[in-house]
Amino acid sequence: MNFAMVGRKLDRAVLGSVLLAAYAVAVFAANFGDQRTPLALMWLATPISVLIPVWIALQIARSDAFAPPTRRFWRHLAVVAALAGLGSVCNTVDAIGGPAPSQELSPLTVAVYGSAVLTLLWALWRLPMGTTSADERLRIGLDASTVLVAAAVFMWHFQTEPLLASNGYRIATLAVAGFTLVLELVAVFVIVKVALSGHAFVARGALRLFALGMFAGAFSGVAQRFILDQPHLSLPQVSVPLVLVCATVGARRQQRALVEPEAHRAASRRPFSVLPYLAVAAIDVLLLASIADGSSDLAVTAVAAVVLTGLVVWRQVTAFRENTALMQRLDFNATHDALTQLPNRALFNQRLTAVLGRGGAPRPVSVALVDLDDFKLVNDTLGHRAGDALLVAVSARLAASVRPGDLVARLGGDEFVVLLDAIDPAEAGPVAQRMVAALAEPVLADGHELLVRASIGIADGRTGDDPGELLRLADIAMYAAKHDGGSGYRRYEPGMAGAVAGSAALGAQLRQAIFGGELFLEYQPIVTLDDGRLRGVEALVRWNHPARGPVPPAEFIPVAERTGLVVPLGEWVLREACRQLAAWIAEFGPRAPGVVHVNVSARQLAVAAFTDTVATALSDFGVPPHRLTVEITESAAVSLGPAVARLEELRRLGVRVSLDDFGTDQSSLTLLRDLPVDELKLDRSFVQRDESGRRGIMPAAVLALARAVGLDIVAEGVELQSQADRLAAMGYRTAQGYHFARPMAPAGIDGLIIEGAPAPAAPLGA
Ligand code: C2E
Ligand code: CA
Ligand code: CA
Predict the structure, then answer these.
(1) Of 91, 486, 619, 687, which has the fewest CB atoms closer than 10 Å, so is most exposed?
(2) Pair 451, 442: CB distance under 8 Å
(3) C-alpha of residue 82 to centroid of ligand 1, in Å
(4) Which residue is closest in CA terms to ligand 1's atom 12?
(5) For 338-362, what is each residue's pLDDT tens digit?
(6) What pTM did the predictor assign?
């Protein structure tokens, strides 16, 4: 349904309702004093005016553009309007069916009108409220009660009491009066409750109109006393059409809410909050008026005034309590981290300063700084939900592993700190060890099982020390722990700063190196064991540091991994290796190396775009995918879920995957089955250790395993002819090592290709 149609229907429906109501009011006015119109014409508008809101409400109830609670509400409203129409038909029969016009309602009419009101109350009651705290609900209840008591007194004063006084205290009159009163009170209560709380599902304009309509309808009975002497007049003749105008306009508001979304709701979340004060003011006025004219029910009004004052005071006390709680909450928020609920940096600094500033004999104080190693990676690859869950889990584990009374705080990001007050320096180590152990267990975060690695730095001080300095030393120790490769702790010791600063400086220079062309690649041949033919090459990155000369990768790759620089570095290596292989293929055709191996670190694999990077490099240089092998270490492959997905993508692309340094991890053998790999590289420690005789079983076992699961296998680090012979005898076909060739510049590989085969290198050290 489009906007124009809504606009046109709105006109006709509302116009129809208004005309019917105007007719009813005009006829009512024309007959005031004396009857001039036939009774049937005076009652005509009432049942007809019901049809319009019933029709619109059913439209809303059937439209799936609205939420289920909204549709349910309007379905109920259609029933309400229909019952009101039925009631007015009964009412008409009561009025004109007897020998003389009558205002009396038959029990049937009361029952039908009553069920209309009850259905409306039910509809309002079923509306979801959207209130939050128990305090807020209490306040709404108190506000509603205030209005309710005031309304009750007014109804008593103007309606029930005069009715009883004029009709005498007959059982029937009492019953009708009591029933009406209760109904009206319940109506007021529900309306006020809905008006005071949120209304997420019904257009605000519509609810206001219902409130207005219910009030008008419920209290129109007050006016009945003025026409008691004119039996041809009856209030429902006008009140029902008028209330139904409200219903029609309200229903239109609801339909329009879809087209013109309501203005910002939060702006006036509690539109009726002045209601209780108005109620008290009204009762006070009534009380004064009653005193002035010596009314008989002065006592009732006075008691009501007292009750209302009590309710308003109660409400204020609640609001006050809520404000106090809010203040405490604000205070807590200012000193605690919202995610983990741990004390934050501000509170930690405050506590540390207080502990160090304590007088008396000097006492030891230690500070342990905890930093997660791969947190950014988790956040970037698995999303913030997983990151948040990880932080919460880590904070719980830290809190569980310290001594009672130690303060665990979150400094921000993935940095935590523990204040170890009055701790024997010898005891700080075990506490740190407990933390490391607690964090070593895999964490289940947002459905991912994660291995957390944390670096912990401890600085030992004593009361009187400077808090900032103690934290700085803990920071240096933490970086030293990270430098060790993470998942461990270090105590601060003099001289540490220099080493750490060196590593930080290296990071800055490495950035320069990647983008400034200080890196280059060497290639180490991978050969067949029996005849030494060149099968492929492994690309190994080199850094020609402008001041220090060549820096070994063992020194700068860990720095690159810590800083994330390994991602651009790895991309450069990948593209350079592809470029070089393409050049060899162009120059030597079938004699070119069959495959180039590129080392890839876990952090690269965790980047979702890595597969695209690889595909682009291959296509940019025209390298067939099967001539690229990606070498990963097993810990990289298993520590993070997404890495496995990346490997699967790469293999779908046609790229080969090789598991580097195989056998150094305890879990290797069992994991092999599940990892998407094509090749194993037997770690050089097994090749070299087999000289001692006893561990010689490992190469044979790994070979058998590789054959069983159908993987290729390369033996690494072959330095001696004897090692090559032994491997060949076991059944190994392919190997790599100084015995065959050292890593060399591309020109060296050119030479090998031209010669036809690499000559065994000179013995080590020559
Ligand atoms: P890796 O992947 O295990 O590479 C083999 C390392 O063993 C190379 O050291 C190589 O020179 C050395 N090697 C080869 N044959 C022998 C031998 O017979 N005996 C001995 N003792 N060593 C041998 P390199 O070039 O210093 O590389 C060290 C590590 O640095 C590599 O270990 C690899 O993990 C990492 N790396 C090197 N280049 C890259 C790269 O481009 N990206 C990444 N992410 N890591 C790289
Ligand atoms: Ca490698
Ligand atoms: Ca290796």
Answers:
(1) 619
(2) yes
(3) 85
(4) 717
(5) 888 999 988 999 999 999 988 888 8
(6) 0.48
